[in-house]
């Protein structure tokens, strides 16, 4: 049988000594140990050294707690992500995309909360919209139409998220086997695939090479549109 997730037991707190910030901070600590999927109110109570009713006093459901965690994660993430600047839009948008990807890949909890978990609180959704508005405004100032600016930023965002989620789902897979790991390249039947595979290229992989190739294609298209206008 699979071992059930456990939490370190702390010295029990006095009644009324816990607050929402402590609960959210403790939830992040516990999620680092057991993951978002296995995070539960009873486990969190044990981790914090409080009765589970003390947590339910502030967060009636796990989803309420996850919403609060997502709000906090988005605020920290938005602060850490570089802005897109109109004067050097290509470089700053590229840095923006790479920083987003590195941030999510380096923090599985952030990835699970924001990318894999589809539900966002109204506050988190509003924060995301404001960040997108800033990026689109910079691209319009750089010379793109509002429609092209939106499509460009949207394509970059989808590319980043898709790349990260593919890698995260690969990490979460029980057997650790991804589609690209099961594909057999026969040099006689597929000589071109064998040639590029031997050079280090991976098929259907969310690696740096594939990520940069697609990102540059999106940026090249935006640059052509700016020149044309």
Automatic annotation (TrEMBL):
Membrane-spanning segments: none
Single GO molecular function: transcription cis-regulatory region binding
Domain of life: Bacteria
Keyword DNA-binding: yes
InterPro entries, per the entry: Homeodomain-like_sf, HTH-type_TetR-like_transc_reg, HTH_TetR, Repressor_TetR_C, Tet_transcr_reg_TetR-rel_C_sf
Name recorded for this polypeptide: TetR family transcriptional regulator
GO biological process: negative regulation of DNA-templated transcription
Keywords, alphabetical: DNA-binding, Transcription, Transcription regulation
Organism listed in the record: Mycolicibacterium fallax (Mycobacterium fallax)
DNA-binding region extent: 40-59
PANTHER family (alphabetical): HTH-TYPE TRANSCRIPTIONAL REGULATOR RUTR, HTH-TYPE TRANSCRIPTIONAL REPRESSOR FATR
Pfam families: TetR_C_1, TetR_N
Ranges of residues in domain HTH tetR-type: 17-77
């Amino acid at each position: 049988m699979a071992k059930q997730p456990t939490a370190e037991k702390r010295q029990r707190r006095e009644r009324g000594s816990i607050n929402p910030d402590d609960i959210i901070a403790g939830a992040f600590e516990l999620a680092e140990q057991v993951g978002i999927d296995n995070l539960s109110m009873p486990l969190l109570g044990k981790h914090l050294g409080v009765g589970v009713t003390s947590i339910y006093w502030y967060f009636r459901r796990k989803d309420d707690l996850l919403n609060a965690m997502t709000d906090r994660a988005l605020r920290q993430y938005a602060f850490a992500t570089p802005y897109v600047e109109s004067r050097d839009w290509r470089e700053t948008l590229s840095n923006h995309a790479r920083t987003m990807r590195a941030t999510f890949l380096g923090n599985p909890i952030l990835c699970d909360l924001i990318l894999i978990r589809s539900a966002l609180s109204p506050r988190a959704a509003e924060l995301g919209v404001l960040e997108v508005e800033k990026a689109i405004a910079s691209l319009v100032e750089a010379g793109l139409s509002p429609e092209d600016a939106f499509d460009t930023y949207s394509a970059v965002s989808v590319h980043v998220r898709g790349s990260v989620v593919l890698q995260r789902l690969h990490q979460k897979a029980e057997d650790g086997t991804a589609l690209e790991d099961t594909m057999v390249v026969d040099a006689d039947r597929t000589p071109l695939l064998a040639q590029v595979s031997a050079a280090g290229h991976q098929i259907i992989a969310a690696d740096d090479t594939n990520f940069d190739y697609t990102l540059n294609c999106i940026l090249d298209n935006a640059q052509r549109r700016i020149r044309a206008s």
